[in-house]
Amino acid sequence: MSSPLRPPARARTKPSSDRPDVQSGSLESSLLRLINDHQTTAIRLREHTEKSKKEAIKSASRVSDLLVEAVNGGVEESFVNEKRIEVEIRALKGTIMRFAKQTDQWLASTHAINNAIKEIGDFENWMKTMELDCKSITAAISNIHQS
């Protein structure tokens, strides 16, 4: 399996002592070429790693932003609902206060009516008593006058 960043594998060569036709200069140039290839590959790999790291950070940042937006959407909706509920509570509180005041007025009115009815009843009893007293006095005067 070969990576696009790595050069294809090379066949191993025999050491120069086994190959009399290879000079020591070509061995050095081969070694230098291997070192250069290795450094180039290492640099490319580092660049690729850095690029992948930056992409991963961007992706993680985007995921984080999306998660924050999703959570904030619910929080924002809750906040709006809370404000709406507070407005309704204030309105209901005003209505309750108005009804309580009206109820107190009705209680005062019914208490006044009850007292008036009691007074009418008391006045009626007083009138009956006075009528009886007047009849008694009239009867007494009639008896005195006839005697």
From TrEMBL:
Residues 1-28 are annotated as: Disordered. It comes from the Eukaryota. GO terms for cellular component: BLOC-1 complex. GO terms for biological process: endosomal transport. InterPro entries: BLOC1S1 (IPR009395). Belongs to the BLOC1S1 family. This is Biogenesis of lysosome-related organelles complex 1 subunit 1. It comes from Ambrosia artemisiifolia. The lineage of its organism: Eukaryota, Viridiplantae, Streptophyta, Embryophyta, Tracheophyta.
